[in-house]
Amino acid sequence: KVEHDFIVSHTQDLETKVDSLKDAVDSMESEKLMLCDQLGQNASKMSSLQSDYDDLHNSFKELNLKAGIMNDEKCNLLSLLDDANDAVEESNAKVSKLLSESEELKEELRVIIH
């Protein structure tokens, strides 16, 4: 009888421990599923961030290309401006020469008239 009671008691203790272990396993399974879900969400976020990075990188490359084109255009405009300045200086020199010749002709006309 004592031996039987001991076996029953020991069996109940073991069943309680098995139930406790099953609960712990279920809890770990639930936690594992939650972690897998979080991992999936993180992977999705990482993919989205990579896509955003790629978009920004492409925009930067495009802006860099446009900046290079604008710089080339600026250099061309500066060259045209230099050419225009040279032409204005040349024109001013010609006007100055014509004014000088005009003054000389006026003088000669005064001499002829008087």
Rounded Rg:
48 Å
Q: Can you give the helix content as a percent range?
A: over 70%
The count of β-strands is 0
Strand content: under 5%
- Residue stretches low in confidence (pLDDT < 50, at least 5 long) are none
What gross morphology would you assign? rod-shaped
Please characterize this protein's 3D structure:
There is one protein chain. The chain has one helix and no strands. Helices cover 98% and strands 0% of the residues. It is rod-shaped, with a radius of gyration of 48 Å. By secondary structure, it is an all-alpha fold. The protein has one helix spanning 2-113. The termini are far apart.
Question: Which features would summarize this protein structure in a list?
Answer:
114 residues, 98% helix
Topology:
Elements: H1 2-113
Summarize the structure.
The protein is mainly alpha-helical.
